[in-house]
Design goal:
Number of helices: 11
Number of strands: 0
Strand content: under 5%
Length: 249
């Protein structure tokens, strides 16, 4: 089994020797992710601008009013699709790359190029497809109620790390394996996440810049969590080492 203390201590041990490399990787990952999100937001705003201008015009005919609202709805839909596309094709693959970087760092193998692993692995299409279905299923679960969506969010939380190890994993196997690995651990994972709130709040007090220094600690601890769950899964025969590493027997 594992404990929060063990995971955090292991992360601190790595950071004591490689903090600034981890800081740089977390910074680049955060900047690209937030930049992609900002770009998607800007495109959404630009797309909805023509329809918004129509609504500013004093139109008396009801048919024109309906057309105006219809145009706005269409533009908002386009903006939403753009945001979803950015998440699927850029942000999610980048998360897989960051997962590989921090996972490799647990063995003190720090290769900055791993941040872009999803784009250079030759399996970009599969990584995109798996992450798309993961997001779709989470969305559908969240439609039921908030709690089921949160629970399944933890159930699928190991998918980026699984793809970071074996980017060729079939989506069914990636999702089911993540669910199996987190079975019986979701509450502990929730508490682990909760334990970082204080750090992020302190970081936010420094105009938000302090969170930049917390991110390496957070990502390193998350990687240690995967390592712990991975060991349990291997011990229980849930998965084999060859499957995780993408090797054929």
């Amino acid at each position: 089994m594992w404990s929060r203390y063990q995971l955090k201590q292991a992360a601190k041990d790595i950071m004591s020797r490689h903090y600034w490399e981890l800081f740089a990787a977390a910074l680049v990952y955060g900047l690209i992710s937030s930049g992609a999100s900002s770009l998607a937001g800007a495109v959404s705003q630009v797309a909805s601008l023509p329809a918004a201008l129509l609504n500013l015009i004093n139109i008396e005919q009801s048919q024109d009013v309906l057309m105006s609202f219809g145009a706005m709805g269409g533009m908002i839909a386009i903006g939403t699709l753009v945001g979803a596309a950015v998440n699927v094709f850029i942000t999610a693959p980048l998360e897989t790359g960051a997962s590989r970087y921090f996972l490799e760092s647990t063995q003190e193998r720090l290769n900055f190029g791993n941040l872009f692993y999803a784009f250079t692995s030759g399996k970009y299409g599969n990584i995109v497809f798996v992450n798309f279905l993961r997001s779709l299923f989470l969305f559908l679960w969240s439609l039921l109620l908030v709690i089921p969506g949160i629970v399944m969010g933890y159930a699928y939380s190991m998918v980026p790390y699984l793809l970071a190890e074996n980017p060729a994993l079939d989506y069914r196997r990636a999702l089911s394996l993540s669910k199996d690995m987190t079975q019986g651990h979701k509450w502990e994972i929730f508490v682990l996440e909760l334990s970082f709130i204080g750090w992020f709040l302190l970081g936010a007090l420094a105009c938000g810049l302090g969170t930049l220094f917390v991110n390496p600690y957070y990502h390193s601890t998350r990687a240690q969590l995967y390592v712990a769950l991975r060991a349990i899964a291997l011990d229980r025969g849930i998965v084999t080492l060859s499957e995780l590493e993408g090797r054929t027997e």
